[in-house]
Structure formats: structure tokens, C-alpha cells
Amino acid sequence: MTSTGVLPRHQQRQYLPGWKHSVSAAQLHKNLPSTTDSSSSDAQIQKQMQVLNQDFAQTGISYRLGGIDRTINPNWFDIVGTGSASQTQMKQALRRGGAADLNIYTVG
Question: What's this model's pTM, rounded to 2 decimal places?
């Protein structure tokens, strides 16, 4: 890495999986995400990954979407807060991949 934090061109790019987890309280129709959650469409999530990769382009790290899951759990939806036991439980249940994998959670 150079003094500017940019990887030299000869160094190989590192690809890491990224996972998107969306938690909602209820689902109104079996084929649609709940209107009470913050679920994005698959196309919107793909676009978000493109923006993330553009922002990380100079670091030598790129993320590939490993998967999207939408979970219905009213308890997590209602009481998950920063640093709470419920948040830890939710993340332990939903997390995918290893320590280097990106997991993004949306609730609400």
C-alpha cells in the first residue's frame, strides 16, 4: 500500500462476500416484502453494492453480494436497539460468512 492508502495496480483485488439482512414485523403478502419494513428490492440492493464498491475501489477490496434474506420477527423488529441483547441475538442468528464478510442489517 502506498502512503496515500491506495494499493499499487499490481496487487490483486480482494473479493469479499456481502450479506443483506432485512427484519420486518409482518408480511402482508407472501410474494412481497412487508410494507412495514425497510426492505429494498433486490435491484436496489445490487445498486447499493455497486456504490459500496465504487467507494472502496482504491482500497483493493470489492464486495460480492453473497445473499439477501428477509426475516419476519416482531420481537427483533420492535425491541432491537444498539448494543442490546436482542441485537446480539439477531446478529448471531442471521450472520453469514466469516469475520471478513460484510453483514448489513436493516430493521424498521
Answer: 0.73
∠ CA 34-38-40, nearest 5°, is 90
Query: How many domains does the structure of the chain reveal?
Result: 1
Name the residue among 47, 27, 21 with its Cα closest to residue 107.
21
Question: What is the domain extent for residue 72?
Answer: 14-107
Give start and end residues of each alpha helix (H) in the chain.
42-55, 74-79, 85-94
Residue 46 lies in a domain: yes
Quote the distance between the C-alpha of residue 88 and its chain's center: 16
Specify whether the CB–CB gap between 25 and 34 falls below 8 A: yes
- Could you tell me if residue 40 is inside a domain? yes
Q: Per-residue pLDDT for 36 more than 50? A: no
The reply to whether 8 falls in a domain is no
